[in-house]
Design brief:
metal-binding (chains A, B); six-stranded mixed β-sheet; alpha/beta; 314 residues; homodimer; DHHA2 (chains A, B); 19% strand; five-stranded parallel β-sheet; DHHA2_dom_sf (chains A, B); inorganic pyrophosphatase (n-terminal core)
């Protein structure tokens, strides 16, 4: 049986892609089970509740040689800890290709679209399979989540077309209202511990030389209520400091993305990160906050800049 | 403009995939130019002559940052020497995923089918584009070449279906006769220098630890006339010895695949390679020749065995 899972610190795309792709593989006669590598965030919990489905079971480890399917990620730092011992038979992803390798020819499907959901809809169509209302709702939610309802610069025409197709199938008549409800659920952070907030949408990227990379931890909080987050700034900086020390990171940043105003103000831990932000982005940090302007996509507007900054030019 | 090319020491799949994918991208409004990274072999020359098209131009270098499309390969050791400086925007391949990375999200399409041609036919269909007779002939030739007209264990049902679809479009009524003519052209090696024979279908694979790999050079001669090749055994062994020294390889093998009888007798240079063949495949070498039986696919039956042999089990 194939184990299908998205990245650690899962977001709505990671969880729903695992659920939907496992169902699609099942309809193609391939035995597959969806898993998650962490707790669903508040937005994802809302999406699953509205859809009337349970979150997939938590996966913590698999024996060497187990056959796995990766969705919405491909880098080992974001996957199961022993990924290099597992047999990757399929990948469906929309991120840059990192350190993934396979020991046999495999099915790999990467496209630079806004959401894994958009790519999964293509797979339904290519397989000649109808999209059931549940799948449509989950895919739609993933696309709205990853593109911030088309606000993110990662948005493509295919993402818009997919939502236009999926909404009536899912029975969602007011897509904007549904998206706002998703974002409100995501922003209702209550008394979530600062460490949990930091790790909610958090990924480690190895920049520069593959043999001796600079490991940077990049967290994002997408919210309709950034004031709430900055009200907890000192707690969050303390959590970032701990995380940096515990995981031996070269740098750590926490971007607070104001979904409705499409701005990114980033929490900056120390002079090390300040220097990199100044040299890589040309922005100054004041009181631990750097204004990254409209750079609201980590994938498209933050990671490539840091990758270029840390990569020696040959 | 995108530069589209297959692997070094190109075979029919590598050359035709570059030609056809560049044409397909052009029909999708994407400016693309096909190239080759080496001389067409005798089979490919026959295919191009029969199709009435020229080989794509030779590509030796590209400036850093140039946008490239890889077909029928993905490992840097088989590509342009400065691949790590180039921007890979698309890959269409049917091999295992090696050391490829991308700096941005890209189009990657890998499937475990017998030929890149089979995958390219899918791309035509998914794009809703008809396949022109020239493209059909080139794709058909690639599939027949890579699967040895369905004799190779890499053959899938999709390869057979693709040939059944393409033959009438290409105007080829007797597929078996066409395949035999291709294989006869490939086997008509004449007075080709031994070094050229060795490098005709030759790839270097890094086995084991990525930071300190065992570099093995694996050549294949697919022929309907193995007697001719073994008649030149001493010349070929001398060429293998030179290649091993010049390129600092850990091992070098030359598999002589009898297409019609579906057997692989492999030329073995030294005691180093003998030991690995004994321990990895359980076969003995006699007079520099190891009988690898029906293992006629380097990709599926030789490379994975060596990869497993050299990979420390975690």
């Amino acid at each position: 049986m194939l184990a299908v899972f998205g990245h650690q610190n899962p977001d709505t795309d990671a969880i729903t892609a695992a659920l939907v792709y496992a169902r699609l593989l099942g309809r193609q006669g391939i035995d597959a089970q969806a898993y998650r590598l962490g707790e669903p965030n508040f937005e994802t919990a809302f999406v699953l509740r509205e859809a009337g489905v349970d979150a997939p079971p938590l996966l913590e480890t698999l024996p060497a040689g187990a056959q796995v399917v990766l969705v919405d990620h491909n880098e080992s730092a974001q996957s199961l800890p022993n990924l290099h011992e597992l047999t990757v038979t399929r990948v469906v992803d929309h991120h840059k290709l990192g350190d993934l390798t396979t020991t046999q020819p495999a099915y790999l499907r990467f496209e630079p679209v806004g959401s894994t959901g958009t790519l999964l809809l293509k797979l339904f169509r290519e397989a000649g399979l109808s999209v059931e209302p549940l799948d449509a709702r989950l895919l739609l939610s993933a696309i709205l989540s990853d593109t911030l309802h088309f606000r993110s610069p990662t948005t493509t025409a295919e993402d818009r077309d997919a939502v236009a197709f999926l909404a009536p199938v899912a029975g969602i008549t007011d897509v904007e209202a549904y998206a706002l409800a998703m974002f409100a659920a995501k922003s209702d952070l209550g008394d979530t511990p600062a460490e949990t907030l930091l790790r909610m949408d958090y990924k480690v990227f190895p920049f520069g030389e593959p043999t001796a990379p600079h490991q940077w931890g990049l967290g994002v909080i997408e919210t309709t209520n950034p004031g709430y987050v900055f009200g907890r700034q000192s707690e969050l900086l303390a959590a970032m400091d701990n995380l940096k020390a515990e995981d031996g990171l070269s740098g750590v940043l926490l971007s607070v993305v104001d979904i409705l105003n499409e701005t990114n103000r980033t929490l900056v831990l120390s002079a090390t990160e300040e220097k990199v932000l100044r040299e890589a982005f040309g922005v100054e940090t004041q009181g631990h906050v750097a204004d990254l302007g409209a750079r609201i996509s980590r994938k498209k507007q933050v990671v490539p800049v840091l990758e270029t900054y840390f990569t020696p030019q040959g």
